[in-house]
Structure formats: C-alpha cells, structure tokens
Amino acid sequence: MKHAYAGILALALPLGLAAQTNNYPNGSTVSDFTVTDTHGVVHNLNTYAAEGKYVLLDFFFYGCPPCQANAPYYSQLYQTYGCNGGDLICIEINNGDDTDAESEAFSEDFAPNFAHPPVVGGPNGDPLTAVFGVSAFPTFALISPEKIMINHDIYPISNMNTFVNAFPQGSGIQPMACAVGIGENTARFSTSVYPSPTTGQLYMNLGLEQASEVQVSVIDGLGQVVYSSNLGRIAAGGLVRTLDLSALADGAYLLRITTPKFGASTQRIILAR
C-alpha cells in the first residue's frame, strides 16, 4: 500500500483515487489559508507567496509508519534549506488524530538529529487537511510563490534529494545555514568555523557542555553529502579540530556537526582558491 490511510472512508477509497491533495491537482491554484502552529506562530500562504517563498506541506499523523520513516528526510530538508529562513517554507500538518503535544513529539521522536519544522497540531491541522482533500499519509505537497500546486504528492521518498528533485527548474531554492536550534539542548552545544572563504583547511571550534560522540559532514547544493568524518567521543569543554576539504570543488557548502546528545548545528562555508 502506498501510504497509511486514516478513517473508514479512506480505507474504502480505490487505490487509483489515492492521489493525495485531491482538491488541488498539479497546476491548480491553491486558495489562501492561515494556520497557527503549536508555538502560536501564524502561517499564511498569501504572506509567503508575497515574499517569493515556496511552501512544502507535510500532512501526517503520529501513528503512521510511513510518516515516521520519512520524518528524518523532511526535517533534514527543513534544516538544510534554512529552517524556514530561506526560499523554502516547511510546515507539518497533523490530520486531526493527535493532540498538539503528540504532534510536536512526532519530529522529536522520529527525526531527533535534525531541527524540527513548525507543526500544526491536530485541532488546527484537521480543517486544512480537509480543505486539501488529503486521505492518505504522508502527503507532501509543494506550492509555488504564485500559489500554484507544483506537486500534490511527492512520493515515494528515498532520501532528502527526493524533495530537492521535486523543485521546479529555475526555482532558485538554495541551501542556507539554519538559524533555529534543536530544543533546549542547543545552549549546551556551540560551534564556530573559520576561515570562510577557505582554500581547503577549515578550523572548527567545538564547545560541549558534556562529552558526546561527534559526526561532521559537508553537504553540497544538491543535498549530497560530499565529506563525512566521525570525530569519535569528544570531551566536555572547548576543542579546535582541522578539517581538510581541499579535495572539494570551489563553491558554497553546508557544514553539519551532529551529536546524539545535543542534536545538530549547520553552518554555511565557502571554498575558494
């Protein structure tokens, strides 16, 4: 079965009618909507459209196994493309099955190593799910700045690049550093890198409140991991490590530093020789 279904009516639908945003086929104009996430932040489609933003909605519910499996890829996309500070806006929409607390726990439980997109809990997500005509989950729907439905069902998801490949040609959507931390642990995990631009040798100043395993990866503009290094267990306190990135081509990249204890930090770096 392609997705997880919710409700007796959805189970009765023929598989051929499972195209996800049934009320907004590709190429249709999406009506303005306003939703409030679990932190009280208001999200309005017209506002994002006026700012030239693309909007990628994730319709989900907590007990949906395919939703759980794809949560890391969606959260990775959110973090890689600026945590809603860049060209792409990511919002999770609960289908109404879960409370706000359960909706928030979804990314925390199934995508713990990435920043978490804003989530619209069940009470507020249920009406929007109905407006879009979503009957199977997860449903990932990409809307252009002109409020045109670009792709009403990005599926199946193999990795983060499935989303990237769904961006229309010439969209201009670019990766950027994430300015949003991961929960309360962020204050106990700090990083800085220098110099940028660099000719290949990059110095990473890492500060940990407690000892933790540390993984470093470099991601190119297509979302591909082009460099990866496991630094092992790093003691609490400050530490400077040197990364040799001389094998990479000139250009802009994202440097991601991941710890299982404190989450991840992402910064933009530039190689220029």
Summarize the structure.
The chain is α+β, with helices and mostly antiparallel strands. The protein contains six helices and 16 strands. The chain has two domains: 4-166, Glutaredoxin; 183-271, Sandwich (Immunoglobulin-like).
Write the layout of secondary structure elements.
Layout: E1 4-5, H1 8-12, E2 34-36, E3 42-44, H2 45-50, E4 54-60, H3 65-80, E5 88-94, H4 100-110, E6 119-120, H5 122-132, E7 136-137, E8 139-143, E9 149-151, H6 160-166, E10 189-194, E11 201-208, E12 212-219, E13 225-234, E14 237-244, E15 251-259, E16 263-271
Parallel strand pairs: 4-5, 5-6
Antiparallel strand pairs: 1-7, 2-3, 4-8, 8-9, 10-11, 11-14, 12-13, 12-15, 15-16
Question: Could you characterize what this model shows?
Answer:
The protein is an alpha+beta fold. It contains 6 helices and 16 strands. The protein folds into 2 domains: 4-166, Glutaredoxin; 183-271, Immunoglobulin-like, CATH 2.60.40. The protein has helices spanning 8-12, 45-50, 65-80, 100-110, 122-132, 160-166, and strands at 4-5, 34-36, 42-44, 54-60, 88-94, 119-120, 136-137, 139-143, 149-151, 189-194, 201-208, 212-219, 225-234, 237-244, 251-259, 263-271. The longest helix is centred in the N-terminal third of the chain and has 16 residues, at 65-80.
